[in-house]
Design a protein that fits this description.
The protein has helices at 2-11, 13-16, 41-49, 56-66, 81-95, 108-125, 143-149, 157-163, 171-174, and strands spanning 101-104, 132-133, 152-155. The chain is mainly alpha-helical and 176 residues long. The radius of gyration is 21 Å and the shape is globular.
Length: 176
């Protein structure tokens, strides 16, 4: 498919003169590195059930986050960023029943994708997070319950800006 797209660009009068170079790079084999420890067996069981192997960059991120380090992950789409930061979050939530997590995404589509991912993990692992989306579309009557009972809340930068002036109502969630 890519070859046919490249060929059509080469032959198209509009693009033909503008193409300086077309180079196809060979794919690289993925490099995996399994975790040495799983504080919660439910996480290992989930990974086995879904046939997920840990990439080396995910392994590094997981250990850094477990150490309490701040991490920035910049990798292509579908390269495992969510799993890399979610495993330590799930571990913390599984070990501490008062722990909470705030996931911030710039778009509704990403937020909904993550909700689906988290709900799937919840169902397969039997660890309850009561994950909910809290954004501009969240009905006012549902907001207090989400704020008070969810252990993972998915939101966006705009909504976070709206919530911060009401930090006293969020103190339980934000302090854990």
């Amino acid at each position: 498919m890519i070859k046919s797209i490249l060929n059509s660009l080469r032959e198209n009068k509009r693009f033909k003169k503008r193409i300086e170079c077309i180079r196809v790079l060979p794919s690289k084999e993925p490099v995996y590195k399994e975790l040495e420890e799983y504080p919660l067996p439910e996480i290992k069981d989930y990974l086995l059930e879904k046939n997920i192997r840990i990439y080396i960059h995910q392994n590094e991120v997981i250990y850094k986050l477990r150490e309490g380090k701040n991490v920035i992950i910049t990798t292509p789409t579908a390269s495992g960023k969510t799993l890399a930061f979610s495993i330590p979050v799930y571990e913390k939530l599984g070990q501490n029943k008062n722990a909470t997590a705030l996931y911030i995404y710039p778009t509704k589509a990403l937020a909904n994708d993550q909700l689906k991912f988290i709900k799937e993990f919840e169902n397969l692992s039997n660890i309850s997070f009561n994950c909910q989306i809290y954004d501009g579309d969240t009905p006012n009557h549902k907001r207090p319950k989400i704020r008070d009972s969810s252990r993972i809340i998915i939101s966006n930068p705009y909504e976070l800006h709206q919530v911060l002036p009401w930090h006293s109502k969020w103190s339980k969630f934000l302090s854990n």
